[in-house]
């Protein structure tokens, strides 16, 4: 805890990097154009590395102004100098340990009122701040007027209006970097009561700090654990005195302190903006904005989600993609025309039986691997990716994250965990990697378990939808089972693993009508990537299965799994789908599809098999990434738990369906 | 490019850095958003090439 310790004024604090360059830190909320400004200032010579001891990435680059070298640091997005997320913690640490010559606070001109409170915090911390009011072009288009000189006068710091994406304001920013930095004396004060409390704490502080004593006092009052530790170290024997004053003030204000401070800062911002910011009198609420509100409110958001799932997943992917398109490609093109033709050709020109079997046999590369990939998986993922791209392009996903935040909190997660969960519907492997963005180890473990257990990947989901969409009862049972298991495991995990649930902040981009070209490009790219990835794997799996068949190993495995299949009420041939599932989730689901088209499964068996297979062990790639992210012990524990849980659930479901005769 | 999840705008090379830790990165062409880690499909080379041709034509006109 060496940061925050102050050495003299901020002029002295103007740090010189090891290379001799002065440091300039870009700070601000996410999505305000910091990275665009960073690129405009530094050009292509940039290093990006993880901040020591964290998984947060920080970009650094250099620029020369008037012959002098400056190091530019693009800090992770932060909303306040009181950190909540790991990104904010890293951003604050950079600000304080690297002691920049200049802090460029970049904010969005369209959200000036919301973002200015952080400027106030930087000023009251007595950091050498220059304010960059970015995205001025968009603000002007919206009819917003900002008086930059007046804003600068009222804040007491240099303020630059910019549109960095169009390089507007960049020369002024470069001039500000080259100019001498100075600490602003805050030209604003809080209420008498608040100032009195701050003054009492300031008087009890005897040490020297990088931040002003006023900022330290406010952070202590806001219960910042890192600052409390630092003050303990700095004050030594005087710390109990400081602690008593802080405790007294916090007790007097109890829960209302955060709210009081926030309200006072808002009032100061309003005063600063009075006359310096003008918005058009009549603000038209667009249909997109109205729709956006509907999607995040539970009363309207949940029915909308169900509509999206019904038309998007069930009708478009399930009925059209996996029904009509697969029937045509797999049923007509492959089964009726292509397979008989290729079998005839191979038998005519390839005299060896073994090779014939490898190419066009029961598990042949062409008749099984290629047919699965092109005839079954491709049309399903094509429709799924098309639907996914439409949703993605409309800006629906972050709204979904907000909608389910409350449910996720009951499971020890936050809305932030929706990101890996939504990603999991695309690819669970990537989603498992994304769990590292969650704040606590507890959240990461819970999210990894849920991903491995109850979130089917895109191809698996598509094939399962296609299988079950012909039997609506089976589809409903599958959906209810997975939802219940997801909630049950999440709730249990939240009980077993103790700890606090962190807060959730998320920047919401505007809702927009998907662009046709964009959607097609994304769908095409995803399909191309997916096809290139699965085809070799499907071929490899076919070869392995062929090897297993000619060595009779495969039959032995099926025999070995027969009692397990019997306990689930499934025919022994179902073992094939589970063996396929070891290679890839979708391969297993495609195997199930094959069994059903051969008429080997009734509705009950189909439902049991689909539930067990969805819950069943993650594919090889996901297992490897679990090992990489969580370590061998946790990965093996999750693998064993998931497999046991899947078969246990399958067994229970079979018993339940047999007893109730529901299906 | 613009992230399909959070709307964050970033350069393709910034996103590719996040992919390096993934064991599937050699075969996968996705670009991860530096802000939320959402994987975004990059614009295919063919479409980039076509855009360049059209923008060059516009400039000459």
UniProtKB/TrEMBL annotation, chain A:
Binding site for GTP: 28-35, 53-57, 74-77, 134-137
Bilayer disposition of the protein: Multi-pass membrane protein
Family under the similarity heading: Belongs to the TRAFAC class TrmE-Era-EngA-EngB-Septin-like GTPase superfamily. FeoB GTPase (TC 9.A.8) family.
Regions crossing the membrane: 302-326, 372-391, 445-468, 475-497, 529-548, 560-583, 603-625, 632-653
Protein known as: Ferrous iron transport protein B
Organism expressing this protein natively: Citrifermentans bremense
Pfam families: FeoB_C, FeoB_N, Gate
Cellular localization per UniProt: Cell inner membrane; Cell membrane
GO cellular component entries: plasma membrane
Function per UniProt: Probable transporter of a GTP-driven Fe(2+) uptake system.
UniProt key word Transmembrane: yes
Positions with a binding annotation for Mg(2+): 39-40, 42-43
Upper taxonomic lineage: Bacteria, Pseudomonadati, Thermodesulfobacteriota, Desulfuromonadia, Geobacterales
GO molecular function: ferrous iron transmembrane transporter activity; GTP binding; metal ion binding
Keywords, sorted A to Z: Cell membrane, GTP-binding, Ion transport, Iron, Iron transport, Magnesium, Membrane, Metal-binding, Nucleotide-binding, Transmembrane, Transmembrane helix, Transport
Limits of the FeoB-type G domain: 21-183
UniProtKB/TrEMBL annotation, chain B:
Superkingdom: Bacteria
Name used for this protein in its record: Uncharacterized protein
Record organism: Citrifermentans bremense
């Amino acid at each position: 805890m060496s940061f925050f310790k102050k050495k003299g004024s901020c002029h002295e604090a103007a740090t010189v990097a090891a290379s001799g360059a002065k440091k300039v830190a870009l700070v601000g909320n996410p999505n305000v154009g910091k990275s665009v400004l960073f690129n405009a200032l530094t050009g292509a010579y940039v290093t990006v590395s993880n901040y020591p001891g964290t998984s947060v990435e920080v970009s650094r680059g250099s620029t020369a102004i008037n012959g002098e070298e400056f190091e530019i640091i693009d800090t992770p997005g932060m909303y306040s100098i009181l950190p909540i997320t790991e990104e904010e913690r890293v951003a604050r640490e950079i600000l304080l340990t690297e002691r920049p010559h200049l802090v460029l606070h970049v904010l969005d001109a369209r959200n000036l009122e919301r973002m200015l409170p952080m400027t106030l915090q930087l000023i009251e911390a007595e950091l050498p701040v220059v304010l960059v009011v970015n995205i001025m072009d968009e603000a002007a288009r919206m009819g917003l007027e900002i008086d930059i000189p007046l804003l600068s006068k009222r804040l007491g710091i240099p303020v630059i209006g910019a549109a960095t994406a169009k390089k507007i304001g960049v020369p002024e920013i470069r001039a500000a970097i080259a100019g001498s930095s100075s600490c602003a004396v805050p030209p604003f004060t809080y209420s008498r009561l608040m100032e009195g409390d701050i003054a009492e704490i300031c008087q009890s502080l005897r040490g020297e700090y990088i931040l002003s004593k006023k900022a330290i006092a406010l952070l202590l009052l806001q219960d910042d654990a890192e600052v409390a530790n630092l003050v303990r170290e700095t004050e030594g024997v005087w710390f109990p005195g400081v602690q008593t004053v802080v405790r007294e003030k916090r007790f007097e204000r109890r829960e209302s302190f955060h709210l009081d401070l926030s309200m006072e800062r808002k009032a100061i911002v309003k005063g600063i903006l009075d006359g310096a910011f003008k918005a058009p009198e009549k603000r038209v609420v667009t249909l997109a904005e109205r729709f956006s509100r509907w999607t995040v409110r539970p009363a309207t958001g949940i029915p909308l989600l169900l509509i999206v799932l019904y038309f998007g997943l069930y009708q478009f992917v399930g009925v059209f993609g996996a029904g009509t398109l697969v029937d045509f490609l797999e049923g007509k093109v492959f089964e009726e025309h292509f397979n008989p033709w290729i079998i005839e050709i191979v038998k005519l020109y390839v005299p060896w039986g073994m090779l014939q079997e490898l190419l066009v046999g029961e598990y042949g590369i062409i008749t099984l691997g290629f047919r699965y990939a092109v005839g079954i998986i491709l049309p399903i993922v094509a429709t799924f990716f098309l639907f996914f791209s439409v949703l993605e392009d409309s800006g629906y996903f972050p709204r979904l994250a907000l909608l389910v935040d409350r449910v996720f909190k009951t499971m020890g997660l936050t809305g932030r965990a929706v990101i890996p969960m939504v990603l999991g519907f695309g690819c669970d492997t990537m989603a498992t990697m994304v769990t590292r963005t969650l704040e606590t180890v507890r959240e990461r473990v819970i999210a990894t378990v849920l991903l491995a257990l109850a979130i089917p990947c895109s191809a698996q989901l598509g094939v399962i939808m296609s299988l079950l969409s012909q039997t609506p009862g089976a589809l409903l049972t599958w959906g209810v089972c997975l939802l219940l298991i997801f909630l049950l495991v999440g709730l249990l995990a939240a009980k077993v693993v103790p700890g606090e649930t962190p807060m959730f902040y998320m920047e919401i981009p505007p809702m927009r009508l998907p662009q046709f070209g964009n959607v097609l490009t994304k769908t095409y790219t995803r399909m191309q990537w997916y096809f290139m990835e699965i085809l070799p794997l499907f071929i490899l799996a076919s070869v392995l299965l062929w090897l297993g068949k000619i060595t009779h190993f495969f039959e032995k495995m099926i025999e070995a799994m027969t009692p397990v299949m019997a306990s689930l009420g499934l025919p022994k041939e179902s073992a094939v789908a589970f063996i396929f599932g070891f290679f890839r989730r979708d391969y297993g689901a495609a195997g199930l599809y094959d069994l059903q088209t051969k008429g080997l499964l009734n509705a009950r068996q189909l439902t049991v098999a689909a539930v067990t297979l969805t819950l069943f062990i993650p594919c090889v790639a996901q297992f490897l990434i679990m090992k990489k992210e969580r370590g061998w012990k946790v990965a093996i524990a999750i693998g064993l738990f998931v497999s046991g849980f899947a078969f246990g659930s399958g067994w229970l479901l079979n018993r339940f369906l047999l007893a109730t005769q529901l299906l | 490019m613009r992230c399909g999840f959070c709307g964050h705008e970033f350069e393709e090379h910034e996103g590719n850095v996040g992919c390096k830790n993934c064991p599937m990165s050699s075969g996968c062409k996705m670009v991860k958003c530096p802000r939320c880690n959402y994987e975004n499909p990059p614009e295919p080379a063919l479409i980039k090439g076509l855009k360049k041709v059209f923008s060059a034509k516009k400039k000459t006109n």
